[in-house]
Specification:
The structure is a homodimer. The first copy, chain A, is an alpha/beta fold. At the A-B interface, α2, α3, α4, β8 and β9 of A face α2, α3, α4, β8 and β9 of B.
Chain lengths: 258, 258
């Protein structure tokens, strides 16, 4: 029987990235799409509280069953699992292909990865795919074989429980991608600045600008891999407990009220 | 010199929880508030992309400098660090007190904790406080001494680098809180269901409902602590790398294209 593959993303159901991903997944199994009806970049692991959700069937992918949802990427996966698919359990959940990087610290802000992590905590094998290319019409041709191979490996061998895979691809260069690297999340961050402007009524508003700062000098991290034209795979946990910090706090802090 | 304490939250600048937190922090240092101008529950680690932010000074806290922001909790911390406070570095960042639990898996969806984690990845000691009480006018009196003590310990001893503390309080009961427990994140999750309704035009919409499912039977986790009337403290990492999964993938997967 063909595997059942759920596809979502955060750039919205009309983006080139999800169209590419659906085309590739159709070669591997039966595909169902539940994706946001509008772009949701930077939504992190947001869910919709206090408002209901809309869910409408879409024929955008031809014979592939597809639904667009008014909610966040995490909402889409919840709706897919508990409403659209009901008693059918997907063999794989894939999210993306994101237009833009979700490497290192960007994983925290990523709607793409929140869909994958939401699926993982439902016990489903899940992968978020992202392309480090910010052009309006990015080139995905160089990553197709990698997306297919990584999805096949996940279907064959599974994904370690309690994790979702964060897969990032370098943008298309003149030489082909060098291969795949298993990585840890680079110790990097965004350094923000804010530009104040005045609206036509003289009231201030602020544009956020970020510079990416990578202070990680080692080679086993995702930034190094991407900078050297490799595909990076980081397995991401949703148990955030910092176990080493428990023993530090236990010895340094007084836990009794004075 | 008095320590500088930045206060934010996700329930919005007018909530009872942030007013309680500001009152307590005023006893410990100079307080600056930058908080959302409207409720942002469930926003996870969302940031505002593609739109500018509004930031307006507010006199809601009297002599305490306060600003309301149109963005998410993570936006508020970025604006505070890089615009409002400019060259001054806070000695402590506190977020909350959230109206509702952020224990176990809820940390992923939590706007309260996203403010704290955003501060932590800027290198600042940061704590998110949440009260497991869903009433419209919750009682905070039983947690005041604990909030103050935990903030004092953070100012004295710091918080392990790379982590933010997720502090949850049990709701007020007839007997006093038993004490503080250092915990790991419980292995629990939300099981969603969706209720379909029709709008006045006959179009469907869906309400999400969650049941909390805790399959964690051990005692060293935050759900156990809260169920037994303890304050739970979980140190949370923002490096999501699941190191154990790297070796599993390395041995099970074929990383070469066929």
């Amino acid at each position: 029987m063909k595997p059942l593959i759920l596809v979502s993303n955060d750039d919205g159901i009309t983006s080139k990235g999800i169209r590419t991903l659906v085309e590739i997944m159709k070669e591997l199994g039966e595909v169902v799409v539940v994706a946001p009806d509008s772009p949701q970049s930077g939504m992190g692991h947001a869910i919709t509280i206090g408002y209901p959700l809309r869910l409408d069937e879409s024929d955008i992918f031809g014979e592939v069953k597809a639904y667009q949802c008014s909610g966040t990427p995490a909402d889409c996966v919840k709706l897919a699992k508990h409403y659209v698919l009901r008693n059918r359990v997907p063999d794989l959940v894939v999210s993306g292909i994101n237009h833009g990087s979700n490497s290192s610290i960007s994983v925290l802000y990523s709607g793409t990865m929140s869909a994958a992590i939401e699926a993982a905590l439902e016990g489903l094998p899940a992968i978020g795919f992202s392309l480090c290319d910010y052009q309006s019409n990015p080139e995905f041709s160089h990553v197709r074989d990698y997306v297919k191979h990584i999805a096949q490996e996940a279907l064959r061998h599974g994904i370690p429980r309690g994790t979702a895979l964060n897969v990032n691809f370098p943008e298309k260069k003149s030489e082909p991608i060098k291969g795949i690297r298993l990585c840890r999340q680079a110790n990097a961050r965004w350094q923000e600045s804010f530009e104040e402007r005045k609206d036509p009524n003289g009231r201030s508003y602020y544009w956020m600008n970020g510079i990416f700062i990578n202070e990680d000098k080692s080679e086993n991290n995702d930034e190094w891999a991407l900078d050297h034209n490799y595909v990076s795979i980081v397995p991401c946990a949703y148990d955030l407990t910092a176990h080493h910090a428990l023993s530090i706090l236990s010895s340094d802090w007084n836990l009794q009220l004075p």
